[in-house]
């Protein structure tokens, strides 16, 4: 382990090492010193630390934090680099960090952190000319996260941390440059608009200058290669319960059960929540009792519809160490569960989102990476995390419950990883389904709320102030070409009414149903 000690990210002071050797640096800049250490010590962890924080380092924890080769972690003890206004252009959960847990995010701080030398070297050809340490670290993480680098805000890097720190030491010029380099062109315009509307500022020069930089958006970095199996212990048991809500799809769920019964690693229990709104109806799943299955099947037949309620009922009775949130119209290869546990151990994963494809569909994302959402029909989660969360009733019969559950997991320290090689087939059955949708009250109103009130519930629960404002501006721009009002002033007035109506309905849902 080699840790670069620096003065306020301006210049290097010294290197502390896990070995007794003295290391002299040739470079006089922090970024140059970081590249120098990576080249000299590719097999070691290369860290960085602001000189005033050295006494607060919790080095005994670092091996647990950097538990495999592709982990990058930092923590803003005193300063974060990018300001909260990055939320104007990014509504992903990586932005709204919960600071007292290990939280998946590409937002990095130059206060303290680390990354393996050989992995750091992969970014040198692309970022070798960057002189700002904070900017460099955030660029590495932003690009790396999409290419298989696991990036975290990690409080366990230090012995103690404060809740308040300086958010955003980056200049407006650096902010606009970063957004231009790492996002689409339209995001730079949205950022300028948000500054104008919400901060009564018009940084036009920073906006223009941003276009004279090299784009890094969706830049591919090869992080392939064998990694050391994670040194982090996640428990020895590999028992798993499967949760399946269903309605009107008896033939499909029969095939799902057959696929699970053929697994080389069998589930312990399958929990089926069958729904039918007719109180005089009977179950369609006779085969649960008439056939012999190699696992226990827990079957609940209820007359209340809704995926949120069904999954919450099932979560209450989960007993195994892991829970598989599954749909009732999927097909699985016989080695899927066995392969899932191989990858869970390899990377020390507590939530694994599978590659869910429809027949004939090609894989969109071909690299393992931290996932910005959550699939409530495609994810395996460690039960001690899953059972601390719930599907919020305010989302019932709408949209957003998946992403909200995922944000709940992140907020308690459970990162979500997508794996392209762990595939299941989603048939999108044309009949039945547990999302039987009643006519919703707000759908009778004119004009309709915009966005959908359940989407607004998600935004209220999970966005920062800047994310909410940026989402509103982006929605107005996106929807403009899809409607008939072409006078901008009339359009904005109309959208404000729809937005307020959506917010009112969202607050009503949250008050009446919880959230």
Automatic annotation (TrEMBL):
Entry-linked SUPFAM superfamilies: Nucleotide-diphospho-sugar transferases
UniProt superkingdom: Bacteria
Keyword field: Transferase
Occurrences of domain Glycosyltransferase 2-like (ranges): 242-347
GO molecular function: transferase activity
Ribosomal protein as UniProt keyword: no
Designated name of the protein: Glycosyltransferase family 2 protein
